Amino acid sequence: ARHVSPNFITEIIDSDLSAGRYKKVVTRFPPEPNGYLHIGHAKAICLNFGIALDYEGQCNLRFDDTNPEKENYEFVNSIRQDVEWLGFKPAQVLFASDYFEKYYECAIQLIKDGNAYVDSVSDEEMRQLRGNLETPGTPSPYRDRSVEENLDLLARMRAGEFPEGAHVLRGKIDLGSPNMKLRDPVLYRILHSAHYHVGEGWHIYPLYDFAHPLEDFIEGISHSICTLEFENNRAIYDWLLDSLKGKCGFPENPRPHQYENARLVLDNTVLSKRKLIIMAERRYLDGWNKPFEAPVISGWSDPRMPTISGIRRRGVRPEAIREFIRRVGVSKTNSRVDLSTLDAAIRDDLNFISPRVMAVLKPLKVVIDNLPENHLEELDAPYWPHDVPNEGSRKLPFTREIYIDQDDFMEEAAPGFQRLTLGGKARLRYAYNITCEAIVKDDDGNIIELLCSYDPESKDGPRGVKGVIHWVSAEKAVPAEFRAYDRLFTVANPDAEEGDFTDYLNPDSLKVFKGFVEPSVLQDSKDTRYQFERVGYYWQDPEDSTAEGLVFNRIVTLKDSFAE
Ligand code: ATP
Ligand code: MG
Ligand code: MG
């Protein structure tokens, strides 16, 4: 089966291959290591690596690290881990910063060809001279510097002779273009910063529109896939590569081409590293600095975060993410995706691999009066429902004292309530029918215990009892903490609301319960995903759960709870 369903990009690739324009399909995934990857990146990863697999080509993991102020190895390492976890193996792992010398060589070539110049106007002046959609741009007084002067200035910029902002290198393209990006874009700026990967030594750093096309050309990329916001940048991409093909060691033919597709935008969360870093590190990348009160996010890998590492820690499998991305598809128009689409893909994956066991999150003690003190019966309980074609069962200890969930008992039945009531009957899953004979309350009137009787003849069937409830043995169950995660934001699109996006963080995005799980889980490997019957899909938190203190994360609810 193909990794990527046919779409407008694969059609282009098919026609490129049949026309012989490329011998091999080469793609890349080019993250900037300035944060952890999020589920939007998963779309780009599945697309680029998936295409390489489908066409027996190759896909590089390239760190687009041309911005020394925001990047580091923590981010590099997390990105490598996330790509691998998603199930893809890069043909090569590359750093754009390793091409700095090559960019410089290209800049010299552009100057020599009259395609670039050093400009020395202020930022403000440059903005004004650039004009707008109604007015064409006006040439800077420095636009016609000689090749010699431009080469001299660029060399001295590189050597660190000038303060930041004194000069920039600009492409000499078209000041009258209706595409504002083509009005002499800045290619290089002065920056006196060390770089996490290449260290000291550079005082000029390339901008995206200069660096990115060259990265693709250097690596022999055939199809360079990006998101729709870069549509207007494509003209610079083409201009630059057409200016340099056959020069600086580049082939005349073929050269890479850029194709844009929709960004993944997911409801009830934010997918922007600039915003995620604020929640993960309380760090502000853009100087924006508004303190906020918020439920504490523990970091990049908090299970509520839309990061790959957060989703992984929550318990989602890579199979589910890949299936979700497949369902979203590849398109030329932006749209928002509902969280229920993601949750459905997660459930569809977990359904077939998650044994059904029982856990009680809000325990209410039940004493079964007609059982002796030390009664211990081992009941046989299947792990799987009839519609899942897996085999296997475990033993469930049935004892005089058990726990049921507080929500499964009402002193007096409300309309439609079919579970246990005072004087009423309910069935214990895989066990017997019980009848509630009496209630024990504390001094404040809270129900703390139920006194019940069981029907020893009811083991083989419900016999007229409608409500089936889950339970665990009070003596044999294992205490555990349960963390139920909910959507991170209370509104679908926090960016579209008034005020700051952090104002819309969901204060109930984490609920913690102290309850009990049946003892069979102690025999399983730690990474087992379970369906706790009637409760949700859970697994042990990989960081906080220990043999002495089990901690379970809710991966996803059993049903779509977003329908409200
Ligand atoms: P962010 O806004 O989160 O910083 P970015 O695009 O600046 O995103 P990069 O590290 O440059 O982050 O992204 C690497 C690749 O992932 C790019 O090719 C980019 O197009 C793609 N990508 C990033 N976010 C999304 C998204 N939400 N949907 C699809 N592709 C995405
Ligand atoms: Mg980017
Ligand atoms: Mg960004």
Automatic annotation (TrEMBL):
Name assigned to this protein: Glutamine--tRNA ligase
Gene Ontology molecular functions = asparaginyl-tRNA synthase (glutamine-hydrolyzing) activity; ATP binding; glutamine-tRNA ligase activity; glutaminyl-tRNA synthase (glutamine-hydrolyzing) activity
**Species this protein is from:** Deinococcus cellulosilyticus (strain DSM 18568 / NBRC 106333 / KACC 11606 / 5516J-15)
Q: What is its EC number?
A: 6.1.1.18
Q: Which GO terms describe its biological process?
A: glutaminyl-tRNA aminoacylation
Q: Which residues of the full protein are shown?
A: 7 to 570 of 772
Annotated keywords: Aminoacyl-tRNA synthetase, ATP-binding, Cytoplasm, Ligase, Nucleotide-binding, Protein biosynthesis
The UniProt entry's sequence similarity note says: Belongs to the class-I aminoacyl-tRNA synthetase family.
**Entry GO CC:** cytosol
